[in-house]
Amino acid sequence: MKFAYYPGCSARSTCAELNVATHRVAAKLGLELAQLESATCTGARELRAIDPAGFYALNVRILALAEREGLGLMTICNTCTLNLLDAHAAFVSDSELAQAVNARLADEGLKYSGRTRISHFLWVLHEDIGPERLRELVVNPLNGLTVAAFYGCHITRPPLRYGFVDSRNNIALEKLAEILGCRPIDYSGRTECCGFHTAAHDEKVALKLTGKHILSAKTGGAQTMVTPCPLCHTVLDSFQREIEKDLGQSLEMPVLHLPQLVGLALGLSPEELNIDRHMVPTDALAAYAGKAHGSVNDSR
Amino acid sequence: MVTPVAATIGASRLGQIERVDTLALRNSRLAPGDMLEVRIRRSGDLDGPPQFQSFKVPYRKWMRVLDALNWIAENEATDLAYRWICGSKMCGSCGMRMNGREVLACWEAVEPSMTIEPLRNLPIIRDLIVDRTPYENKVARLEPWLERAVTYPGFPEPLTHKQMKDSSKALDCISCMCCYSACPVIGLGDLTSFAGPAPLVQLAQTALDPRNDPQKVKRSLALTDIFNCVSCYKCEEVCPASIPIVSRIIEPLKAKAAELLPHMAGHSFALRSIVAARGRVDPSALILRVQGIRALRNLPRVFRLLLRGKINPLKTFLLVKTAAAGAAHRLLNGKVRRR
Q1: For the complex shown, is ipTM > 0.85?
Q2: Cα B102 from Cα B177, distance rounded (Å)
Q3: Residue of B161, B233, B337 to mutate for A, most A C-beta atoms under 10 A
Q4: Cβ atoms < 10 Å from Cβ of B231
Q5: B269-281, pLDDT tens digit by residue?
Q6: Range of weakest confidence among A82-96, A219-233, B301-315
Q7: Of A12, A126, A159, which has the smallest distance from its Cβ to B14's Cβ?
Q8: Contact yes or no for B273/B338 (Cβ under 8 A)
Q9: Interface contacts (A, B; CB < 8 Å)
Q10: What does DSSP say about strands A224-227 and B129-130: parallel, antiparallel, or unpaired?
Q11: Any residues with CB less than 8 A from the CB of B254 and at least 6 apart, and which?
Q12: pTM score > 0.90 for this model?
């Protein structure tokens, strides 16, 4: 099974560990990933508002690169996923836009015809690998590890973009956590917003919002949080010290990228998954890593 | 969290699990005469902890949340306060929260077990009735009207459907306040001066109208703090009028703000120019461009990030380009105003 792979900017900078973990887990899952080296940023939330023409050009170009390879496109960032889905939807519904974008791509001999399937790693796990195969591949069930799934916004909303209608019903991460042997917990933050998209100019919104979510995960008994989005991870993990200061209480909540949680259950070691690269110590999860690998603590 | 419907469906595509969880299907889980468990938040002492009162309501076919409330008011709690007028998704007065989600009572099927609360982010007057005054004051302050910069050219005006598509979408709003209740930034109170989704929809009805005087629109947008919208799409998710509030209202308004008040969109221009130069976002470069000297307040975090190898100052200061730089430069060299 082969996918064109689009990691996005975060996984190649502030969340480089996500990129590493994804490659390792993909190998275990038998997923072949073709990296699109010349793929640009999708424009985050900023470009689509101030420069729609530029936004469509960048995103459709990425879709065209995958189409040229004849491959589906696998993403690992929620915001990139939504940008690509939105650009694809606009492209196929507005022929004038489609012509204009293709005219700009013609310079480098690219042309999009609307055939690329866009799929986040979370959906690849459910739809392409499938729960049965995944269950067979779990060699180190994470016995009873209590996990708070943090979906992030752009993989679940807006309604109907991917087919979800009510984010209260999201179950993909919880189902997955169960397959890996974890015990998913229910808490008020699961489909809430981390506030990342205002953090570059003013992070107080992100700190306040995410503080509530981590606190509710902690109160709900979570030993770790897991998220399919590196932008959410940045606020949950890299900003946690400031969040603790704002709340006036300690949280010490480890936050894993989705492929890292999967990787632990597939028998990869914490070092292979770069779990020690997070800002909040992940020592507490050591007992759940495969016995053969020792603890995360020892690996430091 | 997991509805019984979603849990029992064996669909392979998760989207399909969601699609079949429709209101009609939820209703089909009930048979006439079944007893619904309804918990309603009563106001009691408004400063104290929330007080809930429980009721058992007999289900009848096609029952809506409003029908359940009417049954309770007629049979169990004659003092229950809630608003409704039209009963047909037009007046926008019966917005409330059912099982954690904003709904119109007149347009939402009952569920076997329901917790019903008033909308958030507005003061409670009594039971399920909220005070809309803060919203109305906000809207009035935004002066949501049209002032022509040029004289009326006479009928018919030379307007195209394309020019009017976003402002006309905003006219679908029924001011039910569901989006205002769902907005997490509004939930943070005075932390920002973000106007919130409902007032922005009201503003968009005329601010996105091409006949409006840009100077008038500029005056209004300056009061919105619109770039504090976190793009979470919660407003879109709950809008009973199905207005794509983020993509058709807030983003076009942001574009207007970037054009008329470029200082409000400084971070957007910074991101664009970094991507155009390097192909991808360098987060450190973005923070430095946007925050300047303010970035120093986060020095401890910078050190922690360095320690874990999460940022690379060499790349930032040496302006390292990625393999995507050429394409990004070519595609983003249009004439969008830069800071």
Answers
A1: yes
A2: 9
A3: B233
A4: 26
A5: 999 999 999 999 9
A6: B301-315
A7: A126
A8: yes
A9: 226
A10: unpaired
A11: A49, A50, B226, B227, B229, B265, B268
A12: yes
